[in-house]
Amino acid sequence: MNLEQLRKQVRQYLDQQQYQSALFWADKVASLSHEEPQDVYWLAQCLYLTAQYHRAAHALRSRKLDKLHEAYHYLAARCHYAAKEHQQALDILDMEEPINKRLFEKNLKDESGLKDSPNDWEVSESSKKNFLNRCLLASSVLKNRNCYVFYLRTNLKSIISLVKLSSLSQ
């Protein structure tokens, strides 16, 4: 079997909700591919689905994959949240991401009266969804910590900018 066939096998097991089998093969694929980021992500996904939250977070964070892509970032935060490590989840969610930086820069331009080019508004649909998912996860973490209102207030400007961005792109 080649690596691509093994990757397909992992996805098939995930689709069939056979998470232990998927985990077994995902571990093999990650090893055989010399820990390619996408393969480690699938391994972490399998670990998460088998309730091995610490191992999943460690698989991503020890290789610094949580800084590589929004999906990896979000999965690492979800792992810590599921493990009831709310502060670590919040720390991950509070890390600066490209979409947050772009929205922050957009707000600065608005306040200073500078005009944007249409390219400044281009944010992928998956980036918008990931940002909203992050906000929802953060609000879940913070609800448990009685800080929900504070977090929403501090991030309201970014959320409003995202909603405006979404309405402009339609």
From TrEMBL:
Gene3D superfamilies in alphabetical order: Tetratricopeptide repeat domain
Xref: SUPFAM superfamilies: TPR-like
Pfam families linked: ANAPC3
Superkingdom classification of source: Eukaryota
InterPro entries recorded: TPR-like_helical_dom_sf (IPR011990)
The protein's name in its UniProt record: Cell division cycle protein 16 homolog
Organism: Microcebus murinus (Gray mouse lemur)
